[in-house]
Amino acid sequence: METRDADRLLPRDREILRDIIATYILSAEPVSSRSVAKQGRLGLSAATIRNVMADLEEWGYLVQPHTSAGRVPTPAAYHMFIESMMQARKLPARERRYIEENLAGTPADADQLIGIASHLLSELSQQVSIVVAPAIGDTVLKAVDFVPVAERKVLCVVVSQEGFVDNRVIETEEEIPRQELTRISNYLTENFAGHTLREIRDRLLRQMTEERLQVDRLLARTIELAREGLALDSQPEVLVDGASALLARPELADILRVRRMFEAFTDKARLVRMLNGCIQGGGVRVLIGDDSDLTSELDFSLVASSYRVGEQPLGTLGIFGPSRMEYQKIIPLVHYLGQALSRALSEAFTGAPAERWEKK
Q1: Structural domain total, the chain
Q2: Do 126 and 241 fall into the same domain?
Q3: Given a cut of 90, is residue 214 above it in pLDDT?
Q4: What is the per-residue pLDDT across 221-230, written as a single tens digit (0 to 9) for each?
């Protein structure tokens, strides 16, 4: 089946398809020609609408489930609706204020800001929100501190410029005096602040191979602690909020589908791959059906946007749920929350107000 280009559809075809999509999003029931005709908006008979619906099905925009007389939109129909038929809409001022107030009232802690953003997405959409926080190894160092906690155990505290904090206890070959740990902490902070943890560890490991530096006992210990303490093996954190809200949806009446959904939410690596695939290019990305293996498997959609500090993308946030979602509401919500989180992170951790993309 070959999908007809949107610009080849007659205005009447587009209006009928728009009404079918809007009706299906609200009702979750296959839409019949009679139900579209009863709305009276187009002034067309049920027979005329039925003929157009048959054409739309042939062109790949509608599908008839089972033996029902009604039809439901396909991913191609949703994409067309989003790209060329959906009216541009800003997030209502009341919701924008609610988002700003919640983010502004949060302590200057990046993890807390991201947690608040995840909750706001779920609360305001009544859908599942997914937020990917950056792995600490991909962030930029602000400070590092090594603190003795036992005879041969040291607590490494890494603070990134974006406000993320990572703690881990490492074991050393021998006990290191507190004064020496302080010197090592100061050395790393003063010489490597402003670089990513990956860059820092790579530079230190290169230094280890240079014979003239191996004789420096302090530097050798610095390299040892940095190698263990700069947590490059950590994975991005994934926050999933509001999954229970989907259980009342008609699409999830099938218990097997519910099981697949929750299995998907526990597969963090797969979620990260899907969301981080949306981070390039800026703006809001919408994945529907076959656009990704996970949306195809569940017949879900993902509406996602990146968040950043300055020009540095940090992670992705989005709404993930059945393809029958209110895109007119979800897209501006994800867009605004991505910008609001970026502003909150920038203002909290760079000390300078971020650019305001959208006027209130």
Answers
A1: 3
A2: yes
A3: no
A4: 787 787 777 7
123 and 153 belong to one structural domain: no
Please tell me which residue, 352 or 165, carries the higher pLDDT value.
Answer: 165
List the domain range (segments joined by +) for residue 16: 6-85
Chain mean pLDDT for the chain: 85
Strand order in the sheet with 153-160: 141-150, 153-160, 165-171
- pLDDT at 68 (0 to 100): 67
Considering the domain architecture, whether residues 149 and 100 belong to the same structural domain is answered as no
* Structure-block tokens of residue 119: 């909750």
Contacts of 298 (CB under 8 A, 6+ apart): 257, 260, 261, 264
Cα(101)–Cα(350) distance, integer angstroms: 20
pTM of the model as a whole: 0.83
Tell how strand 141-150 and strand 153-160 pair up.
Answer: antiparallel
- Does residue 32 have a pLDDT over 70? yes
Residues 6+ away with beta carbon under 8 Å from 321? 127, 128, 246, 249, 300, 301
How would you classify residue 15: left for phi > 0, otherwise alpha for psi between -120 and 50, otherwise beta? alpha
pLDDT at position 228: 75
**Residues 171 and 256 reside in one and the same domain:** no
Nearest residue to 338 via CA among 270, 275, 290: 275
- The CATH number of residue 53's host domain is 1.10.10.10
Q: Which of 164, 224, 157, 186 is nearest to 345 (CA)?
A: 164
CA distances from 337 to 129, 144, 295, 333, 345 (A): 11, 31, 22, 6, 12
Going by their DSSP bridges, the two strands 62-63 and 72-73 should be labelled as: antiparallel
Query: Does the pLDDT value for residue 151 go beyond 90?
Result: no
- CA–CA separation, 149 and 167 (whole Å): 13
Q: Which of 57, 51, 85, 82 is nearest to 71 (CA)?
A: 57
Sheet holding 128-133, edge to edge: 237-241, 128-133, 312-322, 300-309, 284-288
Rg over CA atoms, the chain: 26
What is the mean pLDDT of the segment spanning 34-58? 89
Residues 50 and 38 in one domain: yes
Both 249 and 105 in a single domain?
Answer: yes
